[in-house]
Amino acid sequence: MEDEPWLTVKEAALLAGVDVQTIYSWVRRGHLEVTGLDHRGRKLFRHLDVAKAEMATRTRAKRVLVPAA
């Protein structure tokens, strides 16, 4: 668990392919939990939690992220 990747809001948004405000929305709605804070007080998220929130959101919206060719 110690070597698990932790992401800032910006990194989480890049990973999920969404805007930073979407990450904050997921947190407000309870779809994503803030796991910790870095040395600057920025919110941190577990990589797996971000991936689960992204997948659940896209499934509910019936949209799938398709990689660019």
UniProtKB/TrEMBL annotation:
Cited SUPFAM superfamilies: Putative DNA-binding domain
Protein name: Helix-turn-helix domain-containing protein
InterPro entries: DNA-bd_dom_put_sf, HTH_17
Organism of origin: Streptomyces cylindrosporus
Signal peptide region: none
Domain Helix-turn-helix: from-to ranges: 6-50
